[in-house]
Amino acid sequence: MALAASSTTRLWTLVAKEFWRKTRRRLRAGPVYRWRYSGRTPERVLIAPPDLRLADPQIALEIYYGRYPLSGHLVETGGKSPFQINVPNHGWQKTLHGFRWLRHMRAAGTELAAANARALVSDWITMHGSHISGIAWEPGTTAKRIIAWLQHSSVVLQGAEFPFYRAFLKSVAMQIRYLRSMAREMPDGKDRLRARIALAFAALSLPAPASALRGATRNLAEELDRQILADGGHISRNPMVVLEILADLLPLRQTYANQAETPPQALIGAIDRMLPALRFFRHQDGSLARFNGMGATIHDRIATILRHDDTAGAPLLHAPHSGYERLSMGGTTVIADTGPPPPVDVSNAAHASCLAFELSSGRQHYIVNAGIDTYGAAEFRPLARATAAHSTATINDTSSARFSHSLRVNDLLGSPLIGGPQHVQCKRTDQKGVQGFIARHDGYVARFGFLHERELKLSSNGNVLAGRDRFQRPGSAAIRNNGRDFVTVRFHVHPDVNLLQDEHDRLVLAADQADTWVFTSAEVVPEVEESIYFAGLGGPRRSRQIVLAFKASEIAEVHWQLTRTSIAGYPENN
Over 60: is that where the pLDDT of 2 sits? Predict the structure, then answer.
């Protein structure tokens, strides 16, 4: 009861903070404050920072013909400016106003693409440049737009006449002043960090006094030290955030160098920690493990970032500050969530995934989490975030953390995760020829009185993953058969893997031209049920899951094993 009350108190404190923040934002967008965003217009852009994000000239052509494939949705404008039409998809609108799609015009490299980029920027300035409201002026979107306009200023300003050149610089300056006034009060998380990155880009790319650069550098360093953990993860525990922030930090480091300025040590240190962290979350096929907001992976994007990684050797196996463990040998990779939920302020994308794991062998994934459909319907997000969508255990079909709130809360905050595990203990058990860990969480203690403990061991050159799931009361008291002790341990199978039964009634996981794995369980007969894999590149896909269902009062501990019986379709040489 005390834990529930504490969670509720934290939630309503967050609601009050967000309500006050939005009230102040509306006030600062009003006529009383707006004069603060006017001032001297820069004379020119000193330098256009590089952009590491992938570009496609074909998308520039689509945009020229009025087709905007943004945020997973295609919108045809019918000859109108995209800023004139009302599109109900929030993600599409945020992407439109963020202007990252300017990189496709740069990649096209034609006068036609440059003219179209200039026309669209002009449309935005005319329709939204002086009216500070709506999605266009959300601070996170404004930060993206400032970075994009600076990075692709050479394309936007190519062949521009003086009136547009002046209007462009005036609008950039106004947006920078607005973002500077909002940054300190932005909600915690990646948008606030990106705002500091955008202001550092601006201080380097535009004529500014030395004090402006010093201030931007100092604020950036403080935010990096606070948000980037000692092992390179982000406080949100989302692997995708590591990738997204690196895509901004690496060009920023280069921009400091190009301007003969010394980057802050916090920037250098953050990049040096984050690059190995990105490798930590990678399976051998290049995709990132699906935890805490991670969906489908665009492999080329990661490859582009990792070209800047000068570290040598295998990825780290232990990320204690981020709350993850990695087992890797003989072409087998296991990545597991062994941490508590992130702070409430940055938990909108967090999952109830404690002690879940993924297993890949070679370039094929076998056991996965459902992940999220990044551009899909919002109503499916709670399903993807639930514990049942992960390869771990649930008790009484209940998630180990709560993220469903009233409509008022969701409208204001999104859907922060609360009431999850408070204490997660984890210990490595590596020995010669064996990698492993034991972890335990208390996410079910408040509601059902159970601790969940999981032990994983990878051995025999990566051919055997042995698992143990144990359920106990604090203090090792006996578990009573009271109808609230039903346990389901799930193993979600990747949709590209066939799940068969051999002549010994064992479950066989096989894929074309890939390894074959056999699943066995000592105490419980495994069952096969339908599942759904949200993180497919083409959207959700039907899949299956292996399920161990039992009562903890009758079976308090289960042992299971995944054994690789052949490699790439050929018998192993034992």
Answer: no
